[in-house]
Amino acid sequence: MSVTVSSPADDTPLLRVSSVSKSYGARTGCEDVSFELWPGEVLAVVGESGSGKTTLLNCISSRLMPTSGTVSYRMRDHTWRELYRMSEAERRFLMRTDWGFVHQNPADGLRMTVSAGANVGERLMAVGDRHYGNIRSTAIDWLGRVEIGADRIDDEPRAFSGGMRQRLQIARNLVTSPRLVFMDEPTGGLDVSVQARLLDLLRGLVADLGLAAIVVTHDLAVARLLSHRMMVMKDGRVIETGLTDRVLDDPREAYTQLLVSSILQV
Amino acid sequence: MSDIATYNFAYLDEQTKRMIRRAILKGIAIPGYQVPFASREMPMPYGWGTGGVQVTASIIGPDDVLKVIDQGADDTTNAVSIRAFFRKVADVETTTDTARATIIQTRHRIPEHPLSEGQTLVYQVPIPEPLRFLEPRETETRKMHALEEYGLMHVKLYEDIARNGHIATTYAYPVKVEGRYVMDPSPTPKFDNPKMHMSAALQLFGAGREQRIYAIPPHTSVVSLDFEDHPFEVQRFEKPCALCGAEQVYLDEVILDDRGGRMFVCSDTDFCEKRREAGHVGELGMAVDGLEAVR
């Protein structure tokens, strides 16, 4: 059992999602999803394609306004703010300081035409850092932490492999020490050995920094390796939640049993 | 007036001028903010100053004295034809003398002679959006301006330093106007950026193809963006102007032969001529009487 006790003092949740629904006209994206996320906790959202995982992620990460329901976030000063009642300026500020978003396709989260160093430094400059030397040394430090050599700092992400791009995207998101990171299929499209390294790296970073994370994935192995808790979605609804090991080793719902049993065994 | 159909004063019809003046007033009220306007077809191609010409046409009156400069010179095609245009459609007096002009339409340069109160500088702007090549979505750049999210502008300067060891942007160098809007000063050399700061003259910017007008009212702070450890600097020239010997002015390189011969001369032709008339001679120059022979 992987029970997380991140820091005993932090027993209030970081994020509170209550009855979030999103419909696209007559079609349902996700329906009546509620959960809480604690600091330092990694939550995996699994389910097949079209089950509403990404819609849910977008709804709780301020990228898509839900049709109904609320998302509340505990700010650094411990006040609770409702996401969609904040001004757009505040939301965007939150998004580039206290939050991170790791896209499946690194090109969506990176600026492909500027160097790796500038990609990492952008958030620092966005919050007012105006010292080139400091920005650069922070960028070198972060590239090192995601295992990208300092000699690649002036290369554009276009010159990077898929795995490196994904690691660069992670560094770019973590440079402002966010408390919450959203990941949409972070290992999708990478080959298995690169996936393994990336997962290992992510697991280390999440543990070191005490990050809370919501990881959307269809890959149960990712959920197993990264997450403490998981939610299984089907047709826009959450059908099962629980500690990752419990859900994967002892799935309760028929659909979850199907999902778990359909993992290829090599 | 004769009964023969003719141009309205200054080419544009009165309703159009009214619309443009409103955009200009809004631009002056919000320094550095890009005001959209319904740009008209002008009898010249885009890229030749259609924005500047529309702004000039909207503010010019019969008593105005117009000067037009192109890369600092009064005698290049663009400058000559725009002067001729306004002589024809507005019957205004034109000049090359910076101090005498009430309206100066410019492409790329701010005259060396300091501008005074009552003068208006009209810039021809090709790309008004300073964030254009950093963020391709116009909806997004507008939002960034609205929310004052200008971190991206420094990403560009960062890239410059990372690649060249110093800020290598030499023209269209981004500025912050009155502590609020980041603005593209049109492709003027950054040498001229300090002249925009607290200028006594009104500065208007017109982008015809992009349909934007923006403005810097007189006595407005205009600060060039930079890093603490890489402060803003203007270009320096090794030698003074070869014709008039002027220092601390912006110089153009002129190729003299096919054996590497070159000279650097004032880009502001009016300034250079005035100095030569006053008896200043550079290392390749000659006294004013000999000048005509060279030409």
UniProtKB/TrEMBL annotation, chain A:
One of its GO terms (molecular function) is lyase activity. Transmembrane segments: none annotated. InterPro entries: AAA+_ATPase (IPR003593), ABC_transporter-like_ATP-bd (IPR003439), ABC_transporter-like_CS (IPR017871), P-loop_NTPase (IPR027417), PhnK (IPR012700). Keywords: ATP-binding, Lyase, Nucleotide-binding. SMART domains: AAA. Belongs to the ABC transporter superfamily. CDD domains: ABC_NikE_OppD_transporters. This is Phosphonate C-P lyase system protein PhnK. GO terms for biological process: organic phosphonate catabolic process. The keyword Transmembrane does not apply. The gene is phnK.
Automatic annotation (TrEMBL), chain B:
It catalyses: alpha-D-ribose 1-methylphosphonate 5-phosphate + AH2 + S-adenosyl-L-methionine = alpha-D-ribose 1,2-cyclic phosphate 5-phosphate + methane + 5'-deoxyadenosine + L-methionine + A + H(+). Pfam families: PhnJ. It comes from the Bacteria. Coiled coil: none annotated. One of its GO terms (molecular function) is alpha-D-ribose 1-methylphosphonate 5-phosphate C-P-lyase activity. Keywords: 4Fe-4S, Iron, Iron-sulfur, Lyase, Metal-binding, S-adenosyl-L-methionine. Its EC number is 4.7.1.1. GO terms for biological process: organic phosphonate catabolic process. It is an enzyme of class 4 (lyase). Catalyzes the breakage of the C-P bond in alpha-D-ribose 1-methylphosphonate 5-phosphate (PRPn) forming alpha-D-ribose. Belongs to the PhnJ family. This is Alpha-D-ribose 1-methylphosphonate 5-phosphate C-P lyase. The lineage of its organism: Bacteria, Pseudomonadati, Pseudomonadota, Alphaproteobacteria, Hyphomicrobiales.
